[in-house]
Amino acid sequence: MSIGPLMLDLEGFEPDSEERELLRHPLVGGVILFSRNYRSPEQLRRLTGEIRGLREPRLLIAVDQEGGRVQRFREGFTPLPPAAWYGKLYRDDRKKALRVCEQAGWLMAAELNSVGVDFSFAPVLDLDIGISEVIGERAFSGSPLVTADLAQAWMRGCHQAGMPVVGKHFPGHGRVRADSHKELPEDPRRLADLMMEDLVPFERLIGAGMEAVMPAHVRYPLVDDKPAGFSARWLRDILRGRFGFQGVIFSDDLSMGAAGAAGGYAERARAALEAGCDMVLACNNRRGAVEVLDALAGFQDPAGELRMLRMHGRKPISRDQVHRDPRWTAAVNALADFAAEESMSFRLEG
Questions:
Q1: Tell me, what DSSP letter sits at residue 350?
Q2: What is the DSSP code string of 236-275?
Q3: Distance CA 70, CA 111 (A)
Q4: Mean pLDDT across the chain
Q5: pTM for the full model?
Q6: Which long-range contacts (CB under 8 A, 24 or more apart) does 293-298 make?
Q7: 59-96 per-position pLDDT tens digit
Q8: What pLDDT sits at residue 315?
Q9: Going by C-beta distance under 8 Å and a sequence separation of 6 or more, which residues neighbour residue 298?
């Protein structure tokens, strides 16, 4: 059995009989977990173990564990700062910021690795210039070079823990006001402008060995009339052709409002795969996910399957081993300033 092109979600703390059957479908290749799937590290380890045991090669298991407001697993995990926190630190002390960012990348990856999660959909490589509220503090900086610098440090930490990374949202979501979860944003800039700004972090991280990319549900009409995630111009010509990217391309969630521009779920999935995505995500809509499976009957992409095999975590480790590792203590101590700021903010709000 191969790794299929669809990643879907689960309803609760363990898969029910219908979900187990779905996860065994040859066109399913992965599972994305949410806060509703998490009760404790021990429960999560049992869940990922069951998912892994359903088939070979085993399904990919992913989560959004960026830090800040996008951290799905909290109780029992170290609170992670939003990316903007490292950007603020960078302005005061570049060397310290890069060191702490690398430590945080290792910490995030090691803690996820210890419970059987292969990777997080991170880092965010978008630029925050005060326009996009849905990005905001999820971005390291408004500077392309600062963003690239910090993201590479974060990626080094992940790689030390054996975790691949996924840069998002290609080619950049930071200069649109609309929320792509609800509607289709448009960025009116020319490709030349994007190349000098938003695309810089992607190009730098691709050169440094980034394993995967997630495109934005954003349309750039001066480049192509299709949103980036459904555009062969963006994915095949620019990302793979101009930038030489050899890794995995994950679609953003097909359930988002902006994805509706490509049609129904079946049309969205086919359009994303034809444009160059290796795996599509269909979350929080089981009927839509089943529609995708029906529409993709007979689909095969051997090259994509080989790329996706590289997304499995590479350094199994237990939680006890993580907590005994001197790097864990060093990383927690390095993030102590963030923890203190969070505590102070909570007291002031209370």
A1: -
A2: IIIIIIIS---SEEEEEETTSGGGGGG-SHHHHHHHHHHH
A3: 16
A4: 93
A5: 0.95
A6: 293/6, 293/22, 293/25, 293/27, 293/28, 294/266, 295/265, 295/266, 295/269, 295/270, 296/5, 296/6, 296/27, 296/269, 296/270, 297/27
A7: 999 999 999 999 999 999 999 999 999 999 999 999 99
A8: 83
A9: none
Q: In DSSP terms, which residues pair with 63 in a beta bridge?
A: 33, 120
Whether residue 181 lies in the annotated active site? yes
Catalytic entry in 252, 253, 278, 312: 252
Asked whether the predicted pLDDT for residue 47 surpasses 50, the reply is yes
Distance in angstroms (rounded) separating the CA atoms of residues 18 and 350 = 44
Enumerate domains of the chain plus CATH numbers. Answer: 6-349 (3.20.20.300)
In the structure encoding, which two tokens stand for residue 259, read together?
A: 């994805």
240 pLDDT more than 80: yes
102 is written with which tokens? 């690398």
What is the sign of the dihedral through the CA atoms of 243, 249, 250 and 251? positive
pLDDT digits (tens, 9 = 90+) for 136-193: 999 999 999 999 999 999 999 999 999 999 999 999 999 998 778 888 899 999 999 9
Identify the H or E element spanning 171: none
Question: What was the pLDDT predicted at 347?
Answer: 38
Task: Tell me the two tokens of residue 279.
Answer: 């795996």
pLDDT tens-place string over residues 292-340: 999 999 899 999 999 999 999 988 899 999 999 999 999 999 998 786 6
CA atoms of 113 and 232, how far apart (whole Å)? 33
Burial class (CB in 10 A: 0-12, 13-18, 19+), 135: buried
| The amino acid at 10 | L
224 belongs to the catalytic site: no
Alpha carbon separation from 209 to 155, 205, 278 (Å, rounded) = 9, 6, 18
| Contacts of residue 195, Cβ cutoff 8 Å, sequence gap at least 6 | none
Across 277-285, average pLDDT: 96
Tell me the two tokens of residue 83: 């990316």
Cα(48)–Cα(38) distance, rounded to whole angstroms?
11
Kindly name the residue from 179, 181, 237, 301 that is annotated as catalytic: 181
